[in-house]
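Tip: read the tokens left to right.
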């Protein structure tokens, strides 16, 4: 655990010296005085000072001009007992920024840090058409090493917790019994789950590729969990590229910024996701079978997925295919022995990069496909039980007193989990609902949804709660209330569509976890890389694919 990782395997295709002309020795970050920020319990208006870089393409390697004083200026404020370094980008010479921006854009293009351009109609359907660099932060985000280690140590504990919760069918059904009455999507998932219980379907081989998301609360200095994702955890392919990008930039410009590239932890998310998929394929024990990626019909983030497919083939010689739920319904069949066959090809592992939102089920065809896959002997990532174990309602149930003890034996592990739990409540808690109506800014209202853009914030919380009270139905069971976390605000340079934006931002750290079990044998249970996302402090939502945030990496302090 901690900050020692192998390099992101697929980013080494091109040597960094083809882009970076010199590698001055970076200076340590320890000499910079640490500073804190006031508790940002208010919204900051972003500066949105935009400068579009009209950069010269130079035939010869350019010389980097030193800043005044040779280092990034550090603003300093004090609040409570916590301190935090904050880079003052207002003091960085614009010519230097333009050089960094240019190198970053070239690096992104050559190393596959790309997504489909939403302005190009076919960019989500045809590979190679309408590519643009993925949105990213120009420099890594400072983050306390102690909290980074804490998040890494939690990953295998959460992996085991998800597995144990998934095996308790009664707990899943009972916890979500009210939710399904007011949420058709959850009801559909529970229907499939109940069908698997009726036929006594056992998942002897269970594969989980999870991501637990956290924010560092400025007031309490606690690392608090936002949510546990058990289906379609995005950006293992592109997220680790951003870590390599930042390390490369600091190798070149670190001396002038006062930053050390060694403080950016390596991020093996792609290679370790692929290793987990390959090991599951091996456990299935059919060398002719393939790994099937379940995808959306129009997917601008396809390259994040294609990185995994390419590495599976190149490193492990495992073939893949991509199918939508509708295509699986049309082309899929179940053989008498339980083998899933799609388009004439036996499937060893079903890896979901779709199926997490009601939008993925526009007709009965998609639901039939999901049921067909669950009935098969293929390894599902995730199974329907793992999917349900990652719902917001289950997260809220696990916070209740004595519930964790039902699934976790080790008292130290229980204490570690509870330490990162934020406040979570159901809407049948009248005292909490009353407080949320009176002080809506302290809460977030969450439906049983994934993918970003679904939560309710601010005065909208009050309006939604009052409306549900007036309706008097069970619609409130579709939501939970969560303590709103106020993280540290930092000045950041954000890259989107080739333009550099300067803004006040907050960040969210996601820790990937991989879990593979065959009956009683745990084959894999570990942390496997991270995803850092940074967004404007004025934005409530935080999804990168949804357009709210940018990809980032860590600078350990």
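Filled-in amino acids:
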């Amino acid at each position: 655990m901690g900050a020692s990782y192998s390099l992101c395997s697929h980013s080494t295709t091109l040597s960094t010296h083809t882009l970076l002309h010199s590698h001055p020795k970076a200076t340590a970050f320890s000499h910079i005085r640490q500073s804190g920020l006031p508790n940002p319990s208010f919204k900051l208006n972003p500066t949105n000072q935009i400068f579009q870089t009209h950069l010269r393409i130079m035939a010869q390697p350019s010389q980097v001009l030193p800043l005044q004083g040779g280092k990034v200026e550090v603003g300093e404020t004090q609040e409570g007992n916590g301190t935090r370094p904050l880079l003052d980008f207002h003091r960085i010479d614009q010519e230097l920024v333009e050089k960094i921006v240019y190198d970053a854009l070239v690096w992104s293009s050559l190393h596959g840090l790309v997504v489909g351009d939403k302005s190009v109609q076919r960019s989500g359907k045809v590979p190679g058409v309408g590519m643009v660099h993925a949105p990213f932060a120009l420099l890594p985000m400072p983050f306390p090493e102690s909290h980074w280690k804490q998040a890494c140590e939690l990953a295998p504990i959460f992996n085991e917790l998800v597995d144990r919760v998934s095996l308790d069918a009664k707990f899943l059904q009972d916890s979500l019994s009210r939710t399904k009455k007011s949420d058709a999507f959850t009801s559909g998932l529970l229907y499939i789950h109940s069908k698997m219980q009726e036929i006594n379907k056992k998942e002897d081989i269970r594969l989980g590729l999870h991501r637990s998301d956290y924010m560092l609360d400025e007031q309490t200095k606690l690392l608090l969990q936002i949510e546990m994702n058990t289906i379609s955890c995005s950006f293992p392919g592109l997220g680790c590229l951003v870590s390599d990008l930042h390390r490369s930039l600091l190798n070149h410009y670190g001396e002038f910024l006062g930053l050390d590239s060694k403080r950016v932890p390596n991020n093996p998310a792609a290679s370790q996701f692929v290793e987990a998929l390959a090991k599951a394929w091996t456990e299935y024990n059919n060398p002719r079978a393939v790994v099937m990626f379940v995808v959306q019909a129009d997917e601008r983030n396809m390259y994040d997925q294609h990185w995994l497919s390419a590495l599976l083939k190149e490193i492990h010689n495992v073939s893949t295919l991509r199918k939508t739920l509708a295509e699986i319904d049309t082309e899929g069949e179940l053989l008498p022995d339980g083998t899933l066959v799609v388009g004439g090809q036996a499937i060893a592992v079903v890896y979901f990069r779709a199926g997490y939102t009601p939008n993925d089920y526009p007709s009965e065809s998609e639901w039939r496909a999901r049921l067909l896959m669950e009935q098969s002997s293929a390894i599902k990532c995730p199974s329907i039980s793992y999917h349900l174990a990652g719902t917001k309602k289950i997260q809220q149930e696990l916070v209740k007193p004595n519930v964790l003890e039902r699934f976790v034996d080790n008292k130290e592990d229980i204490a570690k989990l509870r330490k990162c739990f934020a406040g979570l409540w159901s809407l049948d808690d009248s005292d909490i609902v009353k407080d949320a109506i009176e002080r809506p800014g302290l809460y977030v209202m969450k439906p049983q949804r994934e993918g970003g853009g679904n939560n309710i914030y601010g005065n909208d919380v009050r309006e939604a709660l009052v409306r549900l009270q007036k309706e008097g139905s069970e619609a409130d069971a579709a939501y939970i209330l969560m303590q709103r976390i106020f993280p540290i605000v930092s000045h950041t340079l954000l890259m989107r569509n080739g333009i550099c934006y300067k803004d006040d931002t907050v960040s969210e750290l996601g820790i990937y976890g991989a879990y593979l079990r065959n009956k009683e044998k745990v084959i894999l249970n570990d942390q496997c890389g991270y995803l850092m996302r940074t967004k404007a402090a004025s934005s409530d939502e935080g999804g990168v694919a949804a357009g709210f945030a940018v990809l980032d990496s860590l600078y350990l302090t």
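The first strand starts at residue 49 and ends at 51. The chain has a mean pLDDT of 85.
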